[in-house]
Design brief:
Strand content: 15-25%
Order of helices and strands: EHEHEEHEEHEHEHEEH
Number of domains: 1
Radius of gyration: 16 Å
Helix content: 25-40%
Distance between the termini: 19 Å
Bound molecules: zinc ion
CATH superfamily: Metal-dependent hydrolases
Number of helices: 7
CATH architecture: Alpha-Beta Barrel
CATH topology: TIM Barrel
Shape: globular
């Protein structure tokens, strides 16, 4: 099936307000996506609405966050239900600097339900770096049963390569690479699954760069196994 592991809803201050969880799920279903993740910056608060919306249109939801580590690396933490994602989100919130969202610079951060009603507005800026390091976020994600995937590692900002200059050894369930260089990175890292993602922030970016994942079982351990099959060495 086509899988897309990295998408932002209206809760992300940099994403379009049109990106409600329901809208993303419906548009991805039309585009033929079978497994879809929501990964707002440092928050999973829109994943309950997202999971419900996905189930209504026959898409398998993954509930996650795109966490900004202390090194300012973006990484994905993905779970197969909203509850563990929300629990991870509390751990992240407790390590997130208390900086008030500047509405002149950023958009609103609404938490919404599956009918697109606003439940609450988050007024702490969600995109800041948290106090935990890359390896601490990795260990916490795994301890809570999630998938840990460094995001857009070949992007010139907020990536492992831009911040550290190299990919340190780690227990990566996959690495996400900007599409044009995916093959090059799979050759460079033959033992790590390489995926592409849309990182959609606006309607026209939905389902633009999914990858193919072969799995019928949709638990995290089955997805981890299916990801391993992407490696040429497996
Ligand atoms: Zn990012
Ligand atoms: Zn992103």
């Amino acid at each position: 099936m086509l899988a897309d592991f990295h998408n932002h809803s209206c809760l992300s201050p940099c994403a379009s307000l049109e990106m409600s969880p329901r809208f993303i799920a419906e548009e991805a279903a039309i585009a033929g996506i079978g497994m879809l993740a929501l990964t707002d910056h440092n928050s999973a608060r829109n994943t309950p609405a997202f999971a419900t919306a996905c189930q209504k249109v026959g898409v398998i939801p993954l509930c996650g966050l795109e966490i900004t580590t202390a090194e300012e690396c973006h990484v994905l933490a993905l779970f197969d239900a909203p509850e563990p994602a929300l629990e991870m989100g509390k751990w992240v919130w407790n390590a997130l600097p208390d900086i008030t969202l500047n509405l002149d610079r950023f958009g609103d951060q609404p938490v919404v339900d599956e009918q697109e009603n606003i439940i609450t507005m988050i007024d702490r800026l969600l995109t800041s770096a948290i106090q935990h390091s890359l390896s601490e976020v990795q260990d916490e994600t795994h301890r809570r049963g999630g998938l840990f995937i460094p995001a857009h590692i070949n992007r010139p900002s907020f990536s492992v390569e831009s911040q550290l200059g190299f990919l340190p050894p780690g227990k990566y369930d996959a690495i996400e690479v900007l599409a044009p260089e995916a093959n090059k990175y799979q050759q460079r890292y033959p033992d790590i699954p390489v995926i592409t993602s849309s990182d959609a922030h606006a309607p026209d970016q939905i389902a633009k760069a999914p990858f193919y994942l072969e799995t019928t079982d949709t638990t995290i351990s089955a997805i981890r196994k299916a990801l391993r099959k992407l490696c040429p060495t497996k």
